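Working notes for the structural subgroup meeting. M.R. asked for a predicted model of this chain before we commit to crystallization trials. I am recording the input and output together here so anyone reviewing the notebook later can reproduce the run.

Input as submitted:
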Amino acid sequence: MKAVIYRFQEYHKINGSLYYAIEYYLYLRKYIDIKLFIVDGKNHTKLLNEVWYDKYSCPPKYETPSRIDLLRYKDALEKVLMIDIKSHNELHDFLHCNIVQFVNENVVKKFNNAKYFGSYSYQNYDYFSYLKLGCEFHNTFKQGDKIFISSAAIKKVNLSNYQSDKYIIKSSNINYNNLFNEIYKVIYHHEQLDTNNRIIIESVYHNKELEIIFNCLIKDSISLRKHDLDNNNIAKYLINDECPMIKEMIK
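Returned structure, recorded in token form:
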């Protein structure tokens, strides 16, 4: 058995790693028999289903085992893919199989049964790979009349510049129903290191206006991806058959 595994984050419920895990699973299942485990997500299936239907054109298909439940699969699991280091740190001891691991943050302790993938200098990876989006599985969205504002320091943003009923502020614990149908523009305030941002790729893919306000000079996924987008290189960030982690999971 092979699986994409994501550890549900109780205090950061909706985040990029969840979407990346879903999209790698959806891509891989075109080629192999694979499961999606959202570990410890059993009490949050209503939210997970809402998130899924809002974003994707196919119905939800996942399981929500506990960490202890993973031990029951120890003889059946052959290889797993994990997209984030939080899942790696919290679940590794419950897994006894080969691991394909994306290093979205620095990994303090590496294990012999894992291969570590990454692309940026702040990721201590062993194999090069970008973390990519599966936009081919997304719903088709219309143009709305609101602005989506993303900032790690929202209190510093002068919201009086915007009409109160015409903007939506990012929150990691709220699912905004039909977000991409509601907005026509994304404004991203770059305040700190952003390890694998996806909203700027999604906004361009879905023909939303994009404005990035650089409040710091960090070279990270924002600055590097913005450079590629300005040079019409969005394909670099879309999952395809040549993605090293896809190849590693299939073989």
